[in-house]
Specification:
This protein is mainly beta. The chain contains 5 helices and 30 strands.
Length: 449
């Protein structure tokens, strides 16, 4: 009996030691179990980027699965970690001794403390370092692009929306943080270890209905042709994420961990043609009469979980982008010349979802085209709509997960094409031959120049 009891004690003691080493359950203030050095390498090949084209700033997030710890850092594109000066100067600084590194205290900080933009936070000085110290244990980790960088140049305008000029007649531009996509719950995740990493998300920035004209269509008068769906900004560029679902780090060792990036967003190209035809009186719009062309696409998934890639589709949105790519061609039949504009609009969104009904003229999956054309002394807005839900479904741009209000993107790129040309005869649009499957022409508005 004594031998049996002794054997049980040995086994129990061994289990305690194993738990202390692997999952770090003992008193960390006196027994830290720190990894000697942890560094990362970022691989951009899978997304077709060179090191020179890689995002300039990223976030690194690590969550220890057992005896939970949350660590958040900013890094540069070379995988170096940004550490505040006061933090880096402490020689005995370890993640398990209660300092700010344990909770990722540097996560929300920017090193550009000399910025003149009052909207940017003032931050302590710091430096990039090649590695960090982490508690030993089992981890989920991810790295993702900071959506606020690179900064964007914005033309300065007066209260009436007019672009301001300098003394040389050049447009005045300000450099600002990119706000088209926002991070959700990162600071909360850093501060509260009860918040799971799946709650760290990105979302398209919401644009209020009253601000659509000013924010999205260069102050043109805008008609709402698909009411009931909110507006968001298009991301405008590819956003990236790299994940490591399981890593085990042993105390006292050094690690260099590679991260392979994939696209977090979908690039959607929408192709369509506009035909300008003369009417019986010889009236005909020309390419020079077309001031702007905008595409409004409904069915945008506004939010994505960074750790899982799952899309929240409980409330689908719509976005507006300007057509900047159009090819001009002409054809003559009899005495009439038809001018054809082959147009492409590009979206960068987390996911695109269509309607179950591919014939409806409102709701997700509906594409609205708005042409601002000069007609005499004013500018006329000419509208048309097409339901692209069937193509969205056939291409499986996003797929179901089995959970309500949840989908996942299945591809990084897709192309939607409207076969029926949008014909404008004289100054008036015509109904497409396929009805609402092609175009549904709606009323127009006039805007004074």
């Amino acid at each position: 009996m004594m031998k049996t009891t002794t054997i049980y004690k040995i086994i129990f003691t061994s289990l305690l030691l194993f738990g202390c080493t692997k999952v770090d359950l003992c008193d960390e203030s006196t027994h830290p179990h720190v990894v000697e050095g942890f560094s990362v390498t970022y691989n951009w090949d899978a997304v077709g980027l060179s090191a020179a084209d890689a995002p300039e700033k990223l976030y690194f997030v690590a969550t220890r699965i057992l005896n939970t710890r949350h660590m958040v850092y900013q890094t540069n594109k070379d995988g170096q970690f940004w550490v505040e000066k006061s933090e880096a100067e402490e020689p005995d600084n370890t993640p398990d001794s209660g300092d700010s590194e344990t909770s990722g205290g540097n996560s929300g900080n920017r090193e550009n403390s000399d910025t003149e933009n009052p909207d940017e936070p003032t931050v302590p000085e710091g430096e990039y370092q090649p590695d960090i110290k982490l508690p030993g244990g089992e981890y989920f980790m991810m790295a993702f692009t900071d959506p606020e960088y690179p900064k964007v140049k914005v033309k300065r305008k007066d209260d009436k929306g007019n672009i301001l000029k300098d003394e040389n007649g050049e447009d005045i531009e300000d450099e600002m943080l990119d706000k088209r996509v926002e991070l959700i719950n990162l600071n909360e995740f850093k501060a509260d270890e009860a918040i799971p990493v799946k709650q760290v998300k990105m979302c398209h920035q919401i644009v209020e209905q009253k601000d659509v004209s000013k924010e999205l269509v260069n102050n043109w008068k805008w008609a709402d042709l698909n009411p009931g769906i909110g507006y968001v900004r298009d991301a405008g560029r590819k956003l990236l994420v790299a994940r490591r679902d399981y890593l085990e780090l042993d105390a006292g060792k050094n690690y260099t961990q590679p991260f392979d990036f994939v696209s977090l967003t979908q690039h959607i190209d929408i192709h369509f043609t506009i035909q300008l035809v003369a009417d019986e009186k010889g009236n005909q719009l020309t390419k020079e009469d077309i001031r702007n062309i905008y595409v409004e696409m409904a069915g945008v998934a506004p939010e994505v979980s960074l750790s899982t890639g799952l899309l929240n589709i409980a409330e689908l949105k719509r976005t507006i982008v300007e057509v900047t790519d159009s090819q001009l061609s002409e054809s003559t039949e009899g005495e009439k010349t038809t001018v054809t504009l082959s147009c492409k609009a590009s979206l960068e969104v987390f996911g695109l979802v269509g309607n179950t009904d591919s014939y409806t003229i409102a709701g997700p999956g509906v594409c609205c085209i708005v042409i601002y054309a000069k007609t005499g002394t004013d500018t006329r807005a000419i509208h048309a709509k097409s339901n692209l839900s069937r193509q969205i479904k056939e291409q499986e741009i996003t797929v179901e997960t089995g959970q309500v209000n949840e989908r996942k993107k299945s591809k990084d790129q897709a192309m939607l094409k409207i076969e029926t040309p949008f014909r404008i005869v004289g100054l008036n649009p015509e109904m497409g031959s396929d009805g609402v499957c092609g175009w549904e022409v709606v009323g127009d508005i006039h805007v004074e120049i």
